[in-house]
Amino acid sequence: MKKIIFLIISLFFFTGCYDYNELNDLAIVSGMAVSYEEEKYETTFEIIIAKKSSSNEQEDSKAMLVSSSGKTPAEAINNTIGKVDKTVIFSHVQMVLLDENIAKHGISDFSNYLFREIHIRNNFNYVLAKDCKAKEILQTKIKNEPVVTNALLDMFNNQNNVEMFDLQSEFDYLYATMKDGKEDIVLPSITLKNEKLGIGTLGYFKKDKLKGYLSKNESQTFFLLIGSVENALYTKENTAISIYKNDASIKAKNNKIYISLDAQGLIKTLEEKDSLRTANTNKKVSKEITKVVKKDIKNLVKKSMEVDSDFLGIQTAYYRKYPDKYKKNIYKTLDYEYNISVEVNRNGQAFEVMK
Amino acid sequence: MITKRQYKTIQFFLTRSLFLGLGVSNIFNLSKNDAWISGILGTILGIIIMSLLYYLKKNIPSHLELFNKGIIGFIAKTLLFLLATYCIHDTIIALTTMMTSFLLPLTPPIVIAIVCLIVILYGNLKGVKVFAKVAEILLPISLFIFLIKLIASLAITDYNNFLPILYNTKMGVLKSSLIFAALSVAPNFLLFSVDKVKLNYKEFLSGYILGSLTIILTLLSVTGTLGATLSRILRFPEYMALKKLRIFNFVENIENILTFTWLFDSAILSFMGAYCIKKILQNTIKNKKVSKVFYLGWLTLIMVIAVYIFGKYYSNTLVLYKYNAFILGGFIILLILSFLLLKLRKSTNSS
User: Fold this and answer.
1) What is the ipTM of this complex?
2) N or C: which end of chain B has fewer CB within 10 A?
3) Which of B106, B107, B229 sits opposite A176 (nearest CB)?
């Protein structure tokens, strides 16, 4: 009898049916667009419709957009949830698109809301909508992919130059960086021209506010120093080298900042006169590209000082070594040593070029 | 009577059990990126206290018999009873908070607590031998999951997160090493309710050291994965760090499976705490029925207090969060003193 009672009780508590939700009753948010205008936050959810579509339905009906606004991030999101007739699920949010106006206004309030919200996984990425509205990006129609967020993720993940989204670019790490206050963040951007989406350059911040964008070359150099590159193209006259592997570090030593890069390159094109029958060409090309990269890195460091944004994390590196000497904006007063080496070690199929 | 291996296994789980929720985040708050140092210092301090415990347990077949002798025995018994109560209470709060925050956000905490209570009661219905066996079975699973966590976290550890070492955290490290020692040692006192298992000094410490080592490694991997700032501001850094883990870059979102180790720890602590309460009640109240009713009533009361007083109001949870280590430290000191007096009296009587 005891066992039967125990089994009956167990049926209610251990079967997991207590608070179940049918998939059809869920509105799964895959992406979000946020803007800030006239002192109001506007949020747009891209919701995946989990319902089975009938054969005559159009394919683009698999995702829908819902928008609303409010004076605070919480109010805006609550109002948007209120417009959805299903249970809104945030645990699959993969990307949050930030309008330039909220990025310039400051993203700390919105980030605080997202960070505290237990239903949102913190491993999504922030992306800036460059020269366009974030909502417009979600409204774009893309062939073969009804969910725009998925298409954007594919774009970022499959582009073959640099690794745009790594672990450190996930939201909670960005939040920690902003909270720590020693270094500034950078965010990737997306552009929309003639209804075509494209990857933009990196936007750099000062604290929680967008200050500006790096150029294409600067963005590439940033990834060379901070992230990981797969096909970073550098050219000098007719010679083009693609850096496919990079190992960089920014360290403080003897009260100086040492920026080191050990990269490996692949020859894409060569000067007419050059031949790879001797090792001299490789050495010469390596030397020339090293010079180019070194110059770019120096310029990037200079830019971070000029725009007053420590997006390279120099202050953090200094703090880790000399915590007692650390003070705000110290990176502008330090000496820098560059130890850059690009070794061109892959030549492709041909020894010579056509004359 | 349980075997030597079972005793050491229970020790392993008990050592780890109070760190979930109330322990790890508190240690990170005080010692930031130096949490692992406080773990090492706390273990050293813990070994000293555990050595004292070994001395106190030596040559005493059953403490429950000693508890019936005089006022000191009664005090020791009451203290152990309260410690068991406190440990179960802590576990229910940690589990309900974590479950409602991450795993079952729509489920009311009382439902989770009732499930915990059913499991505790069922475990104790079968007796110490059965849950000791359960612990024995869970140990390799727990260690296997722990190893997966550790190896997976190595791949994403940023070693710069450990720098600077001991800058502005010396006092915090000292405080948190005391917290570490209190949290790791206190639940081991519950084993006083188990009949004597003959263990030598090394065997007696092995479960504790292994348990502490896993916690130190957890502190290291959380710091390496999340960094000092995130570890400090998160409510459950030990869980959030698991969210970052990926095995071979394609097995991800495995945090709920990897959390099982914490659930195992909590389950064994709850079993042990309830067993301790049951034994003390049986030892005090001779009428079996009354003792049973009191046992059931007491566990229900713990659950209600945990859910509706400490779990429901954040200010109360915060009190617990702040003074948890002090309360456990107080229990440790008072229990050591009372056991010492009991032992002294026993040796005087026997001589």
Assistant:
1) 0.85
2) C
3) B229
